[in-house]
Amino acid sequence: MKTKPAFLLLHALFILLLGSCQTAKYLPDSTEIGFGLYGGQVELRKTDKQFLTGELIALDSTSLLIRQDANKGCVQVPIAEVNNFTLRYARPKKYWWSVPVYTLVTLSHGFFLVYSAPANAIATSTVAITGENAYQYSQKQLTYDQLRMFARFPQGMPPGVKPEELK
Asked: Structural domain tally of the chain?
C-alpha cells in the first residue's frame, strides 16, 4: 500500500495546528501593549529542573515573585535558582489557520501543485511559527533589571499588599 505525500503533508500540518499552545488570558492584545493591568507571563526552568509558569508580579535583586497559573498562588523564586526564563508580554498572533488554507488553494495550480503545495506549506508554517514567537523575550535578550519592566509591580511590591491577596 502506497502512502501519498500530500496525505502525509496534510496530516503533518494538522498535527502542527494541534500543537499550538494556549496563552494566558491576562496578556494584552498587541494593540494594548503598555496599558495592561497585569505582568507578563514568565516561564522559568530552575536549576533543579523544576518548571514554573505564571504572571510576573515583582522582582528585586535577589528573587522573583510569580503568581502561578491555575490559581496555585504566588511563589518566591531566588534568582540564583533560575536556570533560564522566557517572558511573553502580549498574546501572540495566530496564523496557523493559513497553513491548510493556503496549501489547499494550490489545488488550482494543476500539475504545478507538486511544487507549489510544499512551497506554500513551508512558507505559511514559517509565518505561523514566527507569529507564535512574537512578543516574547528569553534570558539571552533580557537582563533581570530589564525583566522588572514587565512585572505587574515594576518598582517592587507596594507596602501593605500581600501576594496571597492578588487576583
From this structure: 1
